[in-house]
Amino acid sequence: MSEIEHSPLGWIQTKIEEVTIPISTSNPSDTPHREISYLDIGSINNEFGLIEQPKVLLGIDAPSRARQIVIPGDTIYSTVRPYLQAIAMVPSNLANPIASTGFCILRPSKGINKKYLFYFVRSDQFLQAIVPLQRGVSYPAVRSKDVLSRDIPLPPTNEQNRIIDKLEELFSELDAGIKELKAAQTKLSQYRQSLLKSAVEGSLTQQWRAENSDRVQETGEQLLARILKQRREQWQQQKLAEFAEKGKTPAKNWQDKYSEPVRPDTSDLPKLPEGWVWASVDQLAVNKRYGSSSKTNDDSSGVPVLRMGNIQDGKLDYSNLKYLPVDHKEFPDLLLNNGDLLFNRTNSAELVGKSAVYRDIGKPVSYASYLISVTFTEHFLPEIAAYYINSVLGKKWLTEVMNQTAGQANVNGTKLGDLAIPLPPVAEQLALIQEITNEFDSIDRQIEATALGLKQSEAQRKNILKSAFSGQLVPQDSNDEPASVLLEKIKQEREASAKKPKTKQIKTKSAMKKITVEELAKWVGNYKGNSFTFEELQTAFQGDYDQLKGCIFDMLSAQKPLFKQVFNQKLNTIMFIKEEK
């Protein structure tokens, strides 16, 4: 214990272990049919510091790490990866909560505001003190004694209460603002999806079609016929060039060997606007290639290699790049062309199919093997294909065609080539891209603004906590009992408690057998002046003697100061069930 340098009035610096109470442990398998709420790291929402998903188990099914008895108001602090701040306060609505041994349990002594302790261990001040103490690389953790031996600035009890009142007032306002920002993010995401759908269905350019019918010289159907004719002619020219190079005369009917791309199946597809037509990716594609599986490196003097993670929200993110040497053997064949569509063919089911269009960045760029690149005809804007695949219509197609094995989904090049996408007239393609680009730019600006707002809110939260634990959040009161007096009281109570003879505990089921169920039932009923008979208790527990025995056993064996609370909780359960009947 020491006075804080330049400390606020009545504050002292002490250790967390000086203001907390040691807890009891228990083996849930001793009461195999009793339900427990098992708390592990997966139970905690670390963003909000809440227990959201406790595991409700029978004692017999509890894992070996379920040992620490916790009560409402305890703070459970995960000692594993402390930088994740898996910290929460135990609420009052959990039945028989038992925490994993992966937590350090912080139970405040009398005079210590439980929320003051909770907020302190969630502060940056505490995080910066504890993270340097973690051990291990793959499973970094601190010890409970590392947590308990950290310093805590301690104000008088009354000031602790004022601090928490002010904190919760400010956090309530802050949380309301954050809720609005997150709601805005959700709406922007939904609006983006709505735009994609309206773009590929044609409703986005409905007004444009009404006002610019004279600009459409060629319908989508006519354009597709021209693209297919041009595709066939280019194949013929390529074959003639090959014959000439080899000095051969073309065989009779050699043109018949041309393979027409598959026409799309449009039986289940929505009706398109007048002048649009469905076309398969293969009908519109000039080339379709898988990326490189060669090992990459971090040498930024090489050629950047785009990977799955570089496709984000329909765009290419050029951070976190890997590289291949400039003279790599697969170049220039695996260099991207301006306008190539990149399609993520393998990933988890919700991420497979992520697509974006590559636009020239002024230097060669390649791509990894889990991506497929599609080079389209010059008469089709590839962004339309990306919009379609990223829309709800494309996601529906993905769920229908993907193969899933061992947690990975896959859509191969053949299936991608069969995908039907809408083909508008060229002039309308340009108008559509311009319209959606303008809207997306507006959405992106709003998303950046909301992200900045959330970042500022988090910084504000940290500043509020910093003010709280440095004595700057609320005014001091010279009438408050100093924290040094509080700490001395805690110390005296601890010493007095240590001198008291320990209550003999029933530790095993065999000891339990020495007491009859009838005697226990009578003892429970008399404790609070209620005349519960054995028959009433039997009815309350629906004839389950093991559950009744376990209930009473837990009451008897609970260590102080848990004894009264556990007893009352169990008795209230009996009364509640009885009243229901």
Going by helix content, strand content and strand pairing, the class is: alpha+beta
Q: What's the shape? A: elongated
What do the pLDDT scores average to? 88
Cα gyration radius (Å)? 35 Å
Number of helical runs?
Answer: 17
Question: What would a concise description of this structure say?
Answer:
This protein has 581 residues and is α+β, with helices and mostly antiparallel strands. It has 17 helices and 25 strands. The protein has a four-stranded mixed beta sheet with strand order 5-2-9-6, with no helix packed on it. It has a four-stranded antiparallel beta sheet with strand order 13-22-18-20. Strands 8-7-10 form a three-stranded antiparallel beta sheet.
Features:
25 strands, single chain, alpha+beta, 17 helices, 15% strand, 581 residues, four-stranded antiparallel β-sheet, disordered C terminus, four-stranded mixed β-sheet
Structural account:
The two termini are 55 Å apart. The strands form nine sheets. A four-stranded mixed sheet has the order 5-2-9-6, with no helix packed on it. It has a four-stranded antiparallel sheet with strand order 13-22-18-20. Strands 8-7-10 form a three-stranded antiparallel sheet. It is 41% helix and 15% strand. Mean pLDDT is 88; it is low at 505-515, 527-532, 558-564 and 574-581. It is an alpha+beta fold. The protein is built from 17 helices and 25 strands.
